[in-house]
From TrEMBL, chain A:
Ranges of residues in domain 5'-Nucleotidase C-terminal: 74-214
Organism: Flavivirga algicola
SUPFAM superfamilies referenced in this protein's UniProt entry, alphabetically: 5'-nucleotidase (syn. UDP-sugar hydrolase), C-terminal domain
Protein name from the UniProt record: 5'-Nucleotidase C-terminal domain-containing protein
Automatic annotation (TrEMBL), chain B:
Organism encoding this protein: Flavivirga algicola
Protein name (database record): Bifunctional metallophosphatase/5'-nucleotidase
Alphabetical keyword list: Hydrolase, Nucleotide-binding
TM annotation in the entry: none
Gene3D superfamilies: 3.60.21.10
Domain of life of the native organism: Bacteria
Residue ranges of coiled coil: none
Amino acid sequence: MRLTHFIFLLYIFTLFSCKQPKLWLTKIEGKQIQITDTLPLDSEIEAYIKPYRDNIQKDLDSVLAYSIRTYSKSDGKLNTAIGNFMADAVYNEANPIFKNRTGKDIDMVLLNHGGIRSILSKGDVTKRTAYELMPFENSIVVLEMRGNQIDRLISYLIKRKRAHPISKLKLTINEHDKIVEAQINGKDIKPNKAYYVATNDYLYNGGDDMTFFKTNDSLYILNYKVRNALIDHFKKIDTINPVIDDRFIQIK
Amino acid sequence: MRRRDFIQQASAGTALVTIGGIGLQSFTNAATTKKITILHTNDVHSHIDAFGPEDGRNANKGGVARRAGLIESIRNENPHTLLLDAGDIFQGTPYFNYYGGELEFKLMSKLKYDAATIGNHDFDNGIDGLYAQLEHADFQFISANYDFSNTIMDTHTKPYKIFKKNGIKIGVFGLGIELNGLVDPTMYKETKYLDPIEVTQDMTRILKTEALCDLVICLSHLGYNYKKNPNKISDLKLAAATKDIDLIIGGHTHTFLSKPTIVKNIEEKNILVNQVGCYGIYLGKIDFYFDSDKNISANGTSIIV
């Protein structure tokens, strides 16, 4: 026992007496290393990822609907088949959710032409199609707008003359850009009536210079992504066959 | 019994000799040099796979499996390595949409990340969505200026963590960006944002003055610099307004720097600010060399970038 104690004491003594010398920071070297395909792949990590990747691929590529033609946002002047399809899909999928939560109906939808990020190709339509059309994470919001605010929205559409996707709004202008007809849900727009307009959070926040949304009376956040609305819509329909119609036209 | 005693004593004796041996060696060495390597990523945004060959900007770049190989080779070279991430781990590929960040956290755990701070996109599935994935993260979340006390994240983050590598004490604290106006309040709920400069003053006092860390690292998601909004707090502003930080590892602004930036802090000392863009295309590597020879250190710290 005595010996053990002695050894123990020696041990402590050695540790303390051998205190680390003070260290100074003398040099810092910094760089960025690019991850390129010349670097070796960690096969264990690669194998770990594979089932996740395969599952996503399988799911993304499972067929939800069939498109009878190829649709592009450049086919059409003031409204396009693909834009009409997207705006109508947002209306059809978001309205039941909005109605369930508020007891009210969405009156119209406005999206942006630039938000259609790809063509819709003829043939099988999959989740991947929805990711291609809408890679962004934007969500659907509904806001209350008065008729006079809708006027600003309409002025914007007339001024821009781009096929921004709309649903439930009908707008006819003459060759002088004057309104011939402007209706929501088949009825003339009343200045003081409250309208529930669905759009996405990007546009609500002023994207594409849509500054008219920010003066809203109230905002409803649906926590429902535009992409998910498209996917849900693909699941419900068999064939995709949208057309260019008379929802926004100019008479000449 | 006697025999066992003897064996015990003998083994203790052996241990003593061995320790003594190391001690003697370190005494006889005129100078000790220690190297600490800090590896870092930011804004990986669920980019688990490398970009495809047809990608217009980053063809064949990035990918977790290649990053893993690179990190392993660096660790083999210097085991005294820390691996850190400056936030926005989530959102950007279907991996996040499908698995909510599970695979991101699992892979970071496999790559043996030591710590990460929280970016604004890490709230994209709500604070509950972030919390739900914590079970997959074997690394520490560090945030000093998000007060989570009224949220589900309470007690699941630390303001700072002190790591010991090769006898060197490394204090790492985290800073996040103001969420108001950037993230939907229903997502971050009652997370409170605290002033980064005030928090940094507390952190550096705790880490440098009280805990006597040899290195202090700020893991920041504040953003590198806001030229159009010079009053907005950023890594460059934080660096210039504070002291006792050696390295700020940044994120948020997806800034690709050709090399780390040297910035003078409030005491006119040079410190480093680094960020590696986004999507796991680059890995940042900062080596810190410590020396016991006062003659070398008398010349100050040389920074090579």
